[in-house]
Write the structure tokens for this entry.
Amino acid sequence: MNRETIKDIMQSQGILPQVKFGQNFLCDEDIIQSIVDLCEVSSVDHVLEIGPGLGSLTYPLSELTDNMTCVEIDHGLADYLSSNIRNAKIIDSDFTKTDNLGDFEVVVSNIPYYVMTDIMKKLFADYSDARKIVFMVEDEAIARIDCGPDTKQYGPLAILCSLYGTYKYEFKVPHTAFIPQPRTTSAVISFSREETADILCPEFVKFLNTCFSMRRKMLKKNLTPIASPDVIDEAFRSIGIKETARAEELTPEEFSRLYKAIN
């Protein structure tokens, strides 16, 4: 889809981008093709797209597989896609509140910044079996994804991303690649699954949220609602975590071991 095609669809269908949903429609054909290539979709793959918008990625991806599911929060856009894309199942729903979509090998999304954390946490909780995940996010948001212990941005999201697999910053996307044009630069990032992703599940995400519930307090204090002091003490000793440690000091692998030790 190019700029003129997007404009024609918007005009003919009476579609206006919804600010509340952070809608910016991708209209650069080279960038679209680059993202499609990154997904590495085969004909037998089940593909999940979150927030397809006007279908800039949906059209080319649905030509590669007959097993594509799209979740769109905007009722008008969901209706448009349902009427115009044959090779994809369109679900009119808020992804963060939608369950039991099935199993997927590939996940792709142009994620609005305001809901990035919620979407990514749910993906890593419910769909961590996917072998490849490709996101477009605001470039500034990368600091919350690609960071390590003892940094201000480090938290559950960075830990989940690290444990899921190999992260790669692919390329920047200028604001001119969208209609309407956002004020910020975007970036495309990808994740390839590794065995450490086996720990990811809804319970583990809840565990991480609990660990970081009060960042200034010692980790032991945060864990008291979910485990007895004796269990926590033994877990800390077995892993080699110091008594006064805060959540921000532990590595992703230590969180994985701690979760297993207290469950």
